[in-house]
Amino acid sequence: MKKILTTVAAAALLWGVAQPTEARAQRALDVASTFPKNMVYLGEGAENMARLLEEVSGGKLKMKVHGAGDLVPAFEVFNAVSSGAVPAGWDWIGYWGGTVPVTGLMGAMPFGPTPEVFLGWMWEGGGLEILQKAYDPYKVKVLPCHLTAPEAGGWFNKEINSPDDFKGLKMRISGLGGKVLDRLGASTQLIAGGEIYVALERGRIDATEFSLPIIDKSLGFQNIAKYYYFPGWHQPASWNSMLINMDVWNKYSEIEQKQFMAACRANVIWSMAVAPGAQGKVLDEFRAKGIQVKRFPDSVLDRLRTVSAEVVAEEAKKDPIFKEAYESLSAYIKTAGQWIDLQQFQR
Q1: Contacts of 203 (CB under 8 A, 6+ apart)
Q2: In the chain, which residue ranges form alpha helices assigned H by DSSP?
Q3: pLDDT tens digits for 61-103?
Q4: Are 203 and 267 found together in one domain?
């Protein structure tokens, strides 16, 4: 993996070398994150992006990452970047669904594509162009720079044996998944990552989902919940992105913009590479602690799948860019699926 990242960095560095040798002041771009500073994997992704950017630019481009709440509250990052109150941000794309509807789909599509398929569509299948079109009215440049592996289905203090067990459940869940569970009678709410533990501990919520086992462990959910469910039907793959105010972005030279893009793509490789091997050990630790790691019953998954399709279809009717993205992504999944299906081994 180091060789891959070094190769990308070296290629990008050559762009800068090829430019006229004029003295340029080093720039430190303030980045407001939706995650606590240095949060395992998610917040760490922004720090890794900063390292890569400095490397590919030969030290000319720098980022200063600020944790959630340091500059603006976590859920105000998009608006702050849009208005120019802060020059840049780091986020989970789906947080902005209330402002830019298509981000609900871009952040994570329930029962949607695997990470590699989502990656192909975003960077090579037209996804990024659709997303940028949705952000243009807000004067925000978006760079999808972190692709998260399939997440957990959530932490609960009661077993989920049927769809009816969601009725009356107070659960922290984000994105389109929250709308799905609302249909099943749950009472869902969005809570920033750094505030979830207290909400669960004090009974404000009965259950929560957040991310991968390594991240959930760092937040301590294993200390206050009994059941850990899979699969993460609501987020089989999800995108984090770097947001840059468009006026700020346009001040960078073409070569500097390319260096941002190179660092961003290298960071996607990092995010995909570090996740899979780290989860099993943490799951073993949970089991040793008495946590019951379980799969949702098929009846639950079947109902969630049906309602998810209904929710996504309804959202597509409300917003033309959401509809465009959904149709584009669905077509890409179908095309990629032909090849993927042929590659499956018999069991």
Answers
A1: none
A2: 2-17, 42-56, 77-83, 102-107, 115-124, 127-135, 175-183, 196-201, 213-219, 246-251, 254-274, 276-288, 298-318, 320-342
A3: 999 999 999 999 999 999 999 999 999 999 999 999 999 999 9
A4: no
Contacts of 25 (CB under 8 A, 6+ apart): none
The continuous run of DSSP H or E covering 172 comes out as strand 170-172
Residue of 50, 80, 205, 65 whose CA lies nearest to 140: 80
pLDDT beyond 50 at 28:
yes
Are both 165 and 309 inside the same structural domain? yes
pLDDT tens for each residue of 315-328: 999 999 999 999 99
Instruction: Please report which helix (H) or strand (E) contains residue 258, including its range.
Output: helix 254-274
CA distance 154 to 221: 10
| Same domain, residue pair 218 and 260 | no
* Any domain includes 347: no
Token pair, residue 30, equals 């303030």
C-alpha angle 106/111/117, rounded to 5°? 60
Q: What is the pTM of this model?
A: 0.91
Domain count, the chain: 2
Q: How far apart are CA 50 and CA 38, in angstroms?
A: 12
Region 163-190 average pLDDT: 97
Q: Which amino acid is at 8?
A: V
Q: Which domain holds residue 212?
A: 154-235+279-342
Please report where in the chains the tokens 């481009």 appear, as a residue: 61
Give residue-wise pLDDT tens across range 266-313: 999 999 999 999 999 999 999 999 999 999 999 999 999 999 999 999
**Is residue 245 situated within a structural domain?**
yes
